[in-house]
Amino acid sequence: MQSNPSVTVKTQIGTLILATSGVQLANGFFGTFFALRVALADFEGVVAGIVLSSYFAGFTLGAMFCKGIIERFGHIRVYAAFGGIVIAATAGMTLWNTPTAWSILRAVIGFGCAGLFVTTESWLSAKAQPGERGRVFSIYMVGCFAALALGQLLITTIDIETAAPFNIVIVLLAIALVLISMTRAEQPQIAETGSLPYGQLSRAAPAAVAGAILSGFITGSFYALFPAWMQGQNVERGTIGLFMLTAILGGLALQVPIGRISDRFDRRLVLAALGFAFMVTAVVLLHLPRMLGVVLPVAALLGGLMSTIYPVSVAHAHDRMPADNVVAVSGRLLLASGCGSVAGPLLGSSLVQYYSISGVLYMMAGAGLTLALISMTRVFTIAAPERQERPFDILAPQAAPLAPEHLVTTDAGTDTHDARSGLTPAAYGR
Q1: Cα dist. 173→86, 170, 181 in Å?
Q2: Pick from 186, 75, 192: which is nearest to 411 by CA?
Q3: What pLDDT was estimated at residue 228?
Q4: Of 66, 87, 141, 335, which one's alpha carbon is 20 to 30 angstroms from that of 403?
Q5: What are the Cα distances from residue 136, in Å, to 7, 79, 133, 401?
Q6: Beta-carbon neighbour count of residue 72 at 10 Å?
Q7: What is the per-residue DSSP string for 31-84?
Q8: pLDDT, mean of each 10-residue run, the chain (430 residues)
Q9: Class of the 5-407 domain?
């Protein structure tokens, strides 16, 4: 009896989404847990910043170079290899707890996680029919956000001073590997991509480049430094997890409305508004009374604003650049965001030493103000670009702004690359 091809494909897609949700669950938990663990280790400010930012450095490198690895070995083998790398590095962190070892291993984990997401998303894009791709990636993104949020809740149930958190991450990743390794899926084919000279994007869309850098700077600082600072203030771990959960859910809540606004107005104005609103929110959060009922709504707004800066920047860049450069454009923005993600924790960890979290919040507010000023300057000096079709993509916090479409063609050989899609993990309304 032959199986229904449609049912088989849906099963494969469901398996990929489930496995990646497990990876995101581990990733979200590990990110917050590791910030708390570094705080307990009492490293010096700059050293702690290097350890915390190493994940983002590895993630950026992985997102840049994993395409060639997938081309050579294929999706299933690469997924297993990257998963094994992450598991091995996580296990190694229980054996060596020096700053140097943790920095190297955390960077390796970032590299491996980028490979897992690129592999999964390119695979999903190949298997989903063009008419269903928006719905598939919408489900995928909801799974990512839900898993990241659930990971924050695990913080309240685990003794972070033991090896148990590392073992939880290893178990979740191993389950994901089993799910993917046993799927009966054909390998997606690889498509050729173009190149983009350095400097061309920054000349054509400086607001987009600034948005990418500052978005990485802000989010990297937030996810690396806030949990550690709260623990240093003897905040209960349940409250820490709830705070981080609220920020992540705020990111999910604002993606669609901000996306619709950016599709109707000059995106540079939207970036300016986001930057200014983020600045105000960061300063307000600093001066609020430390009561959950007051802090959590502002934390949700803060998370929502910082999670929407990058996708609006990507959309603006695609408005400014030719469609045949979309992959290279998004690659440049990914590199810019990664550099910001590394710089944020490095600078912020030094500020925490001297100015507590006030220094970090003012630093993040300054980044928001800088974005607003750059964007408004462009609005007054350069005419708005022509609007492109379906340019806004939705990104999960701590997830890669990656490109599934540029890696694959359909099984029949028809190119699935969307001329307006960027290096993003999902797109609504496709």
Answers
A1: 8, 5, 12
A2: 186
A3: 86
A4: 87
A5: 14, 20, 5, 17
A6: 10
A7: HHHHHHHHHHHT--HHHHHHHHHHHHHHHHHHHHHHHHHHHHH-HHHHHHHHHH
A8: 55 76 84 87 83 89 78 79 90 89 93 82 67 66 79 81 87 84 62 65 86 92 90 87 91 84 87 96 91 92 91 83 69 83 90 89 96 91 62 52 42 37 32
A9: mainly alpha
Task: Specify the DSSP class assigned to residue 388.
Answer: -
Which residues touch 108 (CB under 8 Å, ≥6 apart)? 58, 85, 86, 89
Please name the residue that has the structure tokens 């959950």: 292
The span from the CA of 367 to the CA of 275, in Å, is 8
Type of residue at 184: R
Q: Name residue 419's amino acid.
A: A
User: Residue 186 gets which letter from DSSP?
Assistant: P
| Length of the chain as a residue count | 430
Q: Where are the domains of the chain?
A: 5-407
Task: For residue 286, give every residue at least 6 positions away whose Cβ sits within 8 Å of its Cβ, in sequence order, or none.
Answer: 357, 358, 361, 362
**pLDDT at residue 298, rounded to an integer:** 95
Q: How far is residue 428's CA from residue 339's CA, in Å, rounded to a whole number?
A: 27
| 190 DSSP 8-state letter | -
How far apart, in Å, do the first and last CA atoms of the chain sit? 35
DSSP letters spanning 352-405:
HHHHHHHHHHHHHHHHHHHHHHHHHHHHHHSPPPPP-SS---B--TTS----SG
Q: What is the DSSP letter of 415?
A: B
Taking the C-alpha atoms of residue 342 and residue 84, their distance in angstroms, rounded to an integer, is 24
Secondary structure class of 426 (helix, strand, coil): strand
Residues 304 and 258: their CA atoms lie apart, in Å, by: 9
pLDDT of residue 335: 81
Amino acid found at 107: A
Query: Does the pTM of the predicted model rise above 0.70?
Result: yes
